[in-house]
């Protein structure tokens, strides 16, 4: 049985065939829209301070909206989210709070506890949990304590304040279920975990994104309370939301205490001391409930923002339930009995979600592994976000509004005027990273393809559309700097998605890979023209996504130096390898692609020769003495010399490997003829690689940058527990540097690399992420795939010690399995019942209301497995679901496994 044979799979097929729109509504609302580049209209690009959290409740957003446990339509015209008030907070809890980049001692940091518990890919069923303290939220305490802490100190977390002691908080659970593509059931459970009864105000809020203020379209939607022809049951209040594009929606509210109305307009008087355009402004519900200002809301019962008020006193251990229903009236007039089938529909969608994941997840998985994988998928699906950014409009400003500072025309993203985005995109994290990052997205799509191949394919293609990709072929990196250079992983991701899709459907989507291939030709050319400074196939890319992994900022080198990067060059070899493999795949249907396969075969060999030359020690990034690949510093004053940093950079050359059956090239006579000619006439280049000549143990051929003698030496480092191998995966920097820091003196400046297994202790790249020792799931994932490729060629006879020095010999497939086990150890309960991801926090590890809520952090402590950095970066950390499910040969991109069709 495959996913398309489930009820949820039928809905996915309807979306793919454009027969229905089950993807019209979803969790596309950001967790944070303040402090983003899009909302920054400052002269100096200080996004965090230009639009701070304190403004968010009062100031209209220009580009998108945010909310707590929120949903919206895919154009984000109409939004729904929760607001909460415990009677003690200084303002309503409408969005998640956190420290800005400058405020946190390790950069931006959300200071809330919330979990994405479940979601199907069409969002026919979703579940979200927010833990809301009963005491006043300690905003000032968190700010002040973190202000006092340095890079060397731990972060001061919300749980450290003691606010959750004795269970004095509410578990607020929101369930969404779709009756159809425009009919959403909403159930809110509020459970009192404290020792005594407590009061809470639950304020579900419906509002329109402000599209009328900016001078392009002045049509204003409305929300009103339906008073004529109300249902016989007067305990149901109905709001009617009317929009020029969406049509009419009704929000049915059971047992509401009050309904309030205002406008989604800025409170200019509070923010800037000038009169507001209307007396009814964005923060009116805060003014009404918290400040007691009755005049703040519109007594006429109309607006562009409405709130439904519920005040509940909940006894200890008990739960209050609130039901609402948001439905289009396009197909029928407002429902007369909106809650008659409510419970049965909710249960039905929940069961369909269970049935769907019963097919997705292998039967071999333990109950705990299923829990982790399912929450990983839930986090990825909840992290879809409507992303809106038109750079030309952002630079020029809006008609009738203030003209942005002229400095912007020479500042951030000024040369990306073509970029025009208003799409639903998979985000790394909707609070700490509420913007797309192209290399993150490649990893997202590999995992998402297991549950929604059509969406995964669409996301990869989106990054290559002409309103994203630069005319010069560059792929936009991320919002803070579209010019940033990320590793070129989209071609690799596309092949993985192709294989997963083929497994699910039995159909090979050649059109998809051909579209990707054509655009990646442009991107490959951009790399060759822009990032090979000497024209010698040694590439520079700067930090390449691995922020502070070097002794110095690889985007801003010491004066007079260039850097020949082992990772940049290896990424390009891997890119060429993926293009070669894809060209051969396409040549099955069109022999013309054999010409391009030859081109990428030769380019791969040239790159390999430049970085891994056996005969010329000046023309290699391999250090024979150490048995490792290093970056090389280049200057006009002396020969290139290695930067002897034992880091993940040295393992990237492994990623440029592909294994195919020995008879593969018999099917491509033109390519085979050119390949043989090249091998015969350029023997000087052939000894730099494993060149697909001699069949291996499994009657296969391998193309690889790393020769077997090099692979053994590299793995001796990787599998050494005193170096790279942790109980929880492969570290980004060797533990060797803990006692032997790398110190360089260049241009009169000292540069240093230490082993830092947790949060960054330096300000390099803002200090909000760290590649100097922690474990990163995406790089470990690529190591696993590389080991699988090498095992396909070398077979069981190629064995190494694992761990190094243990005397225990393993083949490379067994090594991959051992690394997979260590990675999953981060999340799964250990013998003492604790999950390493939680660190030493006893509340998280032991309390039944916390211990099964899995956070998917940005990275993990290299010695303990504790989660570090962004706490909900399910994006690429969601790959743990794929690792739990296994990396069998059929999944492997570039392996040329036989299709099912």
Explain how this protein is built.
The chain has about 900 residues and is α+β, with helices and mostly antiparallel strands. The chain is about 30% helix and about 20% strand. It has 24 helices and 37 strands. The protein has a 9-stranded antiparallel beta sheet with strand order 7-8-9-10-19-15-14-13-17. A hairpin with a 6-residue loop joins strand 25 and strand 26. Helix 10 (about 440-450) runs parallel beside helix 12. It is globular and about 85 Å long.
Query: Which term fits the overall shape?
Result: globular
**How many runs of DSSP E, i.e. beta strands?**
37
Q: Please report the distance between the alpha carbons of the first and last residues.
A: 16 Å
Question: How big is the Rg?
Answer: 28 Å
Report the total helices: 24
Structural class: alpha+beta
Helix content: 25-40%
């Amino acid at each position: 049985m495959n996913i398309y044979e489930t009820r949820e799979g039928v809905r996915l097929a309807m979306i793919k065939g454009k027969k229905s729109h089950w993807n019209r509504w979803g969790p596309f609302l950001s967790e944070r829209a303040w402090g983003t580049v899009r909302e920054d209209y400052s002269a100096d690009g200080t996004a965090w301070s230009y639009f701070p959290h304190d403004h968010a409740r009062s100031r209209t957003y220009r580009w998108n909206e945010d909310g707590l446990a929120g949903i919206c339509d895919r154009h984000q015209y109409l939004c729904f989210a929760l607001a909460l008030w415990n009677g003690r907070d200084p303002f309503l809890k409408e969005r998640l709070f956190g420290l800005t980049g400058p405020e946190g001692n390790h950069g931006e940091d959300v200071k809330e506890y919330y979990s994405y518990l479940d979601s199907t890919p069409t969002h026919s069923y979703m579940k979200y949990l927010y833990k809301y303290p009963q005491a006043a939220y300690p905003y000032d305490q968190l700010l002040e304590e973190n202000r006092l802490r340095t890079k060397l100190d731990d972060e001061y977390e919300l749980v450290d304040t003691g606010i959750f002691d004795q269970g004095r908080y509410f578990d607020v659970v929101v369930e969404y279920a779709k009756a159809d593509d425009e009919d959403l059931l909403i159930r809110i459970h509020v459970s009192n975990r404290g020792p005594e009864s407590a009061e809470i105000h639950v304020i579900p809020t419906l509002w329109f994104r402000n599209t009328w203020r900016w001078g392009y379209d002045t049509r204003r939607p409305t929300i009103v309370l339906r008073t004529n022809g109300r249902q016989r049951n007067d305990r149901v209040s109905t709001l009617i939301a009317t929009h020029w594009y969406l049509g009419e929606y009704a929000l049915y509210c059971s047992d509401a205490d009050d309904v309030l109305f205002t406008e989604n307009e800025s409170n200019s008087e509070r923010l800037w001391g000038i009169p507001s355009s209307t007396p009814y402004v964005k923060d009116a519900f805060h003014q009404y409930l918290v400040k007691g200002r009755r005049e703040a809301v519109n007594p006429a019962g109309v607006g562009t923002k409405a709130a439904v008020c519920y005040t509940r006193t909940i006894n200890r251990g008990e739960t209050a339930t609130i039901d609402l229903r948001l439905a289009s009236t396009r197909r029928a007039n407002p429902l007369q009995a909106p809650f008659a089938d409510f419970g049965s529909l909710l249960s039905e969608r929940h069961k369909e979600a269970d049935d769907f994941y019963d097919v997705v997840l292998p039967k071999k998985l333990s109950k705990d592994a299923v829990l982790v994988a399912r929450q990983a998928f839930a986090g990825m699906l909840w992290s879809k976000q409507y992303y809106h950014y038109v750079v030309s409009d952002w630079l020029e400003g809006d008609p009738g509004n203030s003209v942005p500072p002229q400095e912007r025309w020479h500042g951030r993203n000024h040369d990306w005027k073509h970029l025009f985005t208003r799409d639903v995109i998979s985000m790394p994290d909707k609070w700490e990273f509420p913007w797309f990052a192209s290399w993150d997205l490649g990893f997202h799509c590999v995992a998402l393809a297991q549950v929604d191949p059509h969406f995964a394919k669409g996301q990869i293609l989106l990054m290559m559309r002409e309103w994203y990709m630069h005319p010069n072929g560059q792929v936009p990196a991320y919002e803070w700097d579209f010019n940033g250079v990320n590793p070129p992983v989209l071609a690799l991701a596309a092949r993985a998605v192709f294989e997963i899709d083929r497994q699910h459907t039995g159909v090979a989507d050649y059109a998809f890979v051909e579209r990707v291939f054509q655009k990646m030709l442009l991107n490959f050319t951009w790399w060759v023209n822009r990032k090979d400074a000497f024209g010698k196939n040694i590439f520079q890319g700067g930090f390449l996504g691995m922020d502070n992994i070097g002794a110095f900022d690889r985007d801003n080198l010491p004066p007079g130096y260039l850097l020949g990067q082992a990772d940049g060059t290896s990424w390009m070899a891997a890119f060429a390898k993926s293009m070669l493999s894809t060209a051969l795949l396409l040549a099955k249907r069109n022999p013309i692609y054999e010409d391009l396969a030859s081109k990428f075969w030769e380019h791969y060999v040239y790159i390999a020769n430049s970085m891994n030359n056996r005969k010329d020690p000046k023309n290699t990034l391999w250090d024979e003495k150490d048995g490792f690949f290093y970056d090389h510093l280049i200057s006009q004053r002396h020969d290139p010399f290695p930067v002897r940093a034992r880091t993940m950079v040295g393992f990237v050359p492994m990623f440029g490997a592909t294994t195919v059956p020995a008879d593969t090239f018999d099917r491509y006579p033109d390519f085979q003829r050119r390949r043989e000619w090249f091998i015969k006439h350029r023997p000087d280049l052939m000894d730099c690689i494993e060149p697909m000549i001699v069949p291996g143990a499994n009657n296969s051929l391998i193309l690889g940058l790393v020769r077997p003698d090099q692979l053994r030496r590299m793995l001796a480092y990787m599998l050494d527990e005193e170096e790279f191998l942790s109980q929880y995966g492969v570290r980004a920097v060797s533990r060797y540097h803990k006692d032997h820091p790398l110190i360089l003196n260049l241009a009169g400046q000292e540069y240093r690399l230490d082993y830092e297994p947790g949060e960054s202790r330096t300000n390099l790249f803002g200090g909000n992420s760290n590649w100097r020792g922690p474990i990163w799931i995406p790089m470990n994932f690529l190591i696993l795939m590389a080991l699988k490729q090498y095992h396909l060629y070398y077979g069981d006879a190629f064995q190494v010690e694992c761990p190094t020095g243990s005397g225990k010999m393993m083949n490379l497939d067994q090594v991959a399995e051992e690394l997979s086990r260590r990675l999953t150890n981060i999340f799964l309960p250990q013998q003492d019942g604790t999950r390493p991801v939680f660190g030493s926090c006893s509340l998280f590890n032991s309390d039944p209301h916390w211990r099964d809520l899995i956070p998917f952090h940005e990275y993990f402590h290299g010695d303990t497995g504790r989660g570090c950095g962004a706490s909900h970066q399910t994006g690429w950390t969601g790959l743990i679901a794929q690792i739990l499910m296994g990396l069998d040969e059929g999944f492997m991109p570039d392996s040329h496994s036989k299709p099912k069709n």
